[in-house]
Amino acid sequence: MTPRPTPSGPDVASLRRPARVRLAWLLAVLAVLALVMLASVAFGSRVVGWADITAALGGADETLDQAAVIKRLPRTVLAVLVGAALALSGTVMQGVTRNPLADPGILGVNMGAMLAIAVAMVTVGLSTATQYIWVAIAGAAISTLFVYGVGSLGRGGATPLKIALAGAATSAALASLVVAVVLPRGDIAENFQSWQVGGVGGAGWESIVQVLPFLAGGLAVCLLCARALNSLALGDELAAGLGERVALVRGVAALGAVVLCGAATAVAGPIAFVGLIVPHMCRLLVGLDHRWLLPFVTLAGAALLTAADVVGRVVNRPDEIEAGIITALIGAPFFISIVRRQKVREL
């Protein structure tokens, strides 16, 4: 009897990695996140000792060190939220498109959000973070649809290489449009350019409260799609045979990813490569099962961006290097490595 062919997609060993191994890695990355959050409140233009940290967390602000800790707390929380959102968004985009190069920055999603904010600032004068978020999500969604549509043209449909090239070309075009829109407006150009670099230096509790519902909603949608993303990884035909409504799953999961990316971009600017680096590293540790992978990348992404923010504050004291520049320095060689090793195959 002829053996039944094995469908393409995740290998069985990756999906069945022992739960105790995954749990151990999950606890390890949780510990790393706690350490980098502690470093984030301790290190900056001045180093704060443990006594002042504990006193500040208890509400004291009598010394400069305690005041520094209180000022760094919203920055640390925002770095955690934005890093988690971008990593989760990139992982879901890779699962939806089966494209190992999918990342909000590479696919032009960040730039779409940025252009939408720039146009809205110039034309209607946006003034609140909530307005930024809605406009950024709309811009991210339009850019995503455009890139996927362009990447689907021609023979073979939406291949990973075509989508990556469409995203790169779209990002370049949108970046030029952003400059064209903002440059003539000197009254907003300076503030916009500092935001355009990407970072969490301007964090405040008000903006965190405003963005939190969007991030929580996007997180919930993406996590609920975890099992369906496992089915999509086996191929559309097999996923449909298993009872999945492929188009609906893709649409809902992509919506969750776009909301996360748009909201994160609105409050922190366009930070690239977090959604590319983290998913690939986490798959090596916990396998391809999205039910484990999505929570894992959420914690790992938070740790990565928080660590990048700490490094940016330490290496150039008393000045700072924005976290978006640090992630770009790490992510660009990583991107080249993926292209060379995987040759842009599907996941």
From TrEMBL:
Membrane association type: Multi-pass membrane protein
Transmembrane segments: 23-43, 73-93, 105-126, 132-151, 163-183, 203-226, 247-272, 292-311, 323-340
Assigned keywords, A-Z: Cell membrane, Membrane, Transmembrane, Transmembrane helix, Transport
Keyword S-adenosyl-L-methionine attributed: no
One GO MF term attached to the UniProt entry: transmembrane transporter activity
Biological processes annotated in GO: siderophore-iron import into cell
Subcellular location: Cell membrane
GO CC terms in record: plasma membrane
Coiled-coil regions, chain positions: none
Main location: membrane
Pfam families: FecCD
Annotated InterPro entries: ABC_BtuC-like (IPR037294), ABC_transptr_permease_BtuC (IPR000522)
Family indicated by similarity: Belongs to the binding-protein-dependent transport system permease family. FecCD subfamily.
Name by which UniProt lists this protein: Iron ABC transporter permease
Organism in which the protein naturally occurs: Actinoplanes utahensis
